[in-house]
Amino acid sequence: MQPKLNLPSRQPTAPKTPPVNADVESPELEGSRMTLWDHLDELRQRLTKAIFALVVGTVFGVLVATPVLEYLQQPYGRPFTTLGPTSGVVEYFRVSLLIGGIIAIPIMTYQVLMFVVPGLTKRERRVLLYSIPPITLLFLVGVAFAWFLLIPPALGFLESFQPTLFKPEWTPELYLSFVTSLLFWMGVAFETPLIFFVLSLIGFVSPGTLMRNWRIAVVGSSVAAAMITPTIDPVNMALVMVPLLVLYALSIVLTSIGIRFNRAEGDTE
Questions:
Q1: DSSP state of 23
Q2: Spans of the chain, pLDDT less than 70
């Protein structure tokens, strides 16, 4: 009887992988590159639609620019003084472009959100899309606030400043630049509380962050007031800066409410 030999079992060896050629791209990399191109193509389409909305709004603005200019001229009360042959034409089309921008803001906002939405959850998408109408409404409220409450005292102060030394003969460039910039940026400022509220609903911002950065908000409000009002007098800057700070305080209150809603909905889920 021959002794039984216990030979070591042979372990299966892993197949040798071929050397990676740096010049050959893997299918995964190629797919990710195609995804990037798809995103860029979608961005191009969204920008095209937004620009098309702006063009259509501007064409409509050309049709209604004359009555709008007459309405904007009412606080001044007399025809503008033009200092060049093209001043009137340039300001006419500038107001037309401003009207087109105001009309196109909802569509442009929608296109931006539609580009961002695929990366968000279903709840975040719903919150963002439902926020478009109230944000647009707040923009119009800010424009009305600037027109009826800010512009009359601002123009009254500027027109009556040292009347024995300065005779107010305003050009359309300076007057319309002052009025339209104040209207537009105050409309944008009135949107910020609701924007912060929406961001707090989806957990992107907290009231503590806003409260800790109140010094930055004060400095930013003063800089924004100086940019919105082209004058350097403290009266007009205060007329703009105070509402901006009030809106920032309102943003803190709304974000605290939004965070509570976010936590409550998270607990129910």
A1: T
A2: 1-34, 118, 230-232, 265-269
SS3 19: coil
Q: What pLDDT was estimated at residue 173? A: 87
DSSP 206-250: -HHHHHHTHHHHHHHHHHHHHHHS-S--HHHHHHHHHHHHHHHHH
Q: How far apart are CA 9 and CA 187, in angstroms?
A: 80
**The tokens of 57 are what?**
């709004």
Question: Which residue matches tokens 């001043």?
Answer: 87
Rg (CA), the chain: 29
pLDDT of 162: 82
Predicted local distance difference test score (pLDDT) of residue 12: 53
Is there a contact between 99 and 68 (Cβ–Cβ < 8 Å)?
yes
DSSP-H helix ranges across the chain: 27-73, 87-116, 122-130, 132-145, 151-159, 172-201, 207-212, 214-228, 234-268
Place of tokens 């949107």: 191
Q: What's the pLDDT at 6?
A: 52
